[in-house]
Amino acid sequence: MAQQQGRGVSDEERLARAALTRLVEPGDPAVGRWLRGLGAVELLQALTGRAAPPPDAGRRRLAGCALRAADLDPAADLATVARLGGTFICPGDLEWPTQLDDLGDARPVGLWARGTASLRLWALRSVAVVGARACSDYGAYVASTLGSGLAERGWVVVSGAAHGVDAAAHRGTLAAGGATIAVLASGVNVPYPRGHTELIEHITEQGLVIAELPPGGHPTRGRFVLRNRVIAALTRGTVVVEAQYRSGSLVTARRALDLGRATMGVPGPVTSGLSAGVNELLRGEAHVVTDAADVVELIGDIGDLAPVRRGPLVARDTLHTVTARVLDALSAQGGSETLEVARDSGTGREEALYRLQELLALGFVERSGDRWTLVRPVGGNGAARRGGP
Fold this sequence. Notes:
By secondary structure, this protein is of the alpha/beta class. 42% of the residues lie in helices and 13% in strands. Among the domains are: 115-299, Rossmann fold (3-Layer(aba) Sandwich); 315-374, Arc Repressor Mutant, subunit A (Orthogonal Bundle), CATH 1.10.10.10. It has helices at 11-23, 29-38, 40-47, 59-69, 74-83, 119-124, 137-152, 165-175, 197-206, 221-234, 248-258, 276-281, 292-299, 321-329, 338-345, 349-362; strands spanning 86-89, 111-114, 126-131, 156-159, 180-184, 208-211, 237-241, 262-266, 287-288, 336-337, 365-368, 371-374.
């Protein structure tokens, strides 16, 4: 990616934005407002004491910026991410996903990225799969199959690389040879959780790892919540698999709703606290989905339809309606004569005889003189056989 990135902004602005990612917290609307009014270079000077501060910047904020300013070395941060095979993407670059602009003043200052794929192109056909960290076996299975199913349909799966549903979605996608993006609440060179170091490295090799924090940045509780807005804005839709009432994945889903993105949930048992949040979400504007085909039908192009859901087809389902009525008229206890069948099915004798002969040829009935008896189905699926007790 570092070699292919379009230079949409000047080196001076890139350095300033890189410095701001270390100076300010992600998603701060005041910073976004100042960026619109001053530009990145002047804002950096204003927050580090080299120019007049923004008029509504409080003393505490400026004091905090002064402490962080002592460690600013954006050129070193850019060199670090380049050594990792990554880059820093700014608004205005060709690689910048413009759907992030929907966040308004909460838009990221920039994104640090590792991987060789095009973030802009991948994001155009992406879907978020998020959910409980302490998920059940059911949740892990659903997330994994969603990941593999979406990958097989050419969709990019976006998640947060956390325990539980996130990890299962990433792994399912990777196992299918698909594309996946991990959005971290830390720097791109700080795997979190630590137990997912190997998984995150695998994502880097086969997909993309992105973050708002500069190299070496560590996650905090608030940064996890703010990370969710990026997941929601980056993708065309968000799927929630298992979520309690107080779940970060519900924050992602509600932000997706606010942004006009498709919001989906996989229903779970009403007796499970892990599904309480997603089931509540489904009472509102979220759509019920059960597999990748359902997801693609909601967020894909015209013609991306999920298959019609039906129960198993049995032989009886293929019968003409009159033939099925004649079959229903046969007594299960010892059979019936032709006239009895005609009377009970509401048909004439000739019609009943014709339908009974059809049923005989199909193996549903047996005939002894003018008496017709039912043939016992094989395996209880409606298919009949001749003979037997």
